[in-house]
Amino acid sequence: MSTTDEHDDETFTEHTLVQAIENQLESGEPAFAQAVLNKLTLVGHEREESVQMMAMVLAHEVDAMLREDRPFDAERYEQLLRALPTLPEEH
After folding, report:
1. In terms of Cα–Cα distance, which of 43, 72, 46, 50 is closest to 60?
2. Contact 33, 21 (CB under 8 A)
3. Is the pTM of this model over 0.90?
4. pLDDT at residue 10 tops 80
5. What are the domain boundaries of the chain?
6. How far is CA 54 from CA 7, 9, 25, 47, 48, in A?
7. What pLDDT, on the 0 to 100 scale, is given for residue 78?
8. DSSP string covering 7-61, please?
9. What is the mean pLDDT of residues 38-63?
10. 23-45 burial, b if ≥16 CB within 10 A, otherwise e?
11. Contact by Cβ (8 Å): 41, 7
């Protein structure tokens, strides 16, 4: 794969994850997503930056799910989101 293709894939993936977070916020499901966004903006993070951090957490959980061949862990996802602005450790 060329560097351009890899960059396009990364951009697409990032956009998809950000859109997933936006969908969670719009639908109110899970409810803790809005609470996390509120907390992050309250402590001074811009909304766009906050959504990006939340998307990074979602990416981390999806990656762990695929790597460990297990279902999505909503409780772990909530714990990781609530730990923001501390990002999860990369494995």
Report:
1. 72
2. yes
3. no
4. no
5. 4-19+30-83
6. 21, 19, 11, 10, 10
7. 97
8. HHHHHHHHHHHHHHHHHHHHHT-SHHHHHHHHHHHHTT--HHHHHHHHHHHHHHH
9. 96
10. ebbeeeeeebbeebbebbeeeeb
11. no
By residue count, the chain amounts to 91
In tens, the pLDDT along 20-36 reads: 999 999 999 999 999 99
At residue 2, the pLDDT reads: 55
Name the band, by pLDDT with cuts 50, 70 and 90, for residue 89: confident
The letter for the amino acid at 5 is D
Amino acid residing at 29: E
> Which pLDDT belongs to residue 14?
87
Give SS3 for 64: helix
- Please give the Cα distance from 90 to 36 (Å, whole number): 21
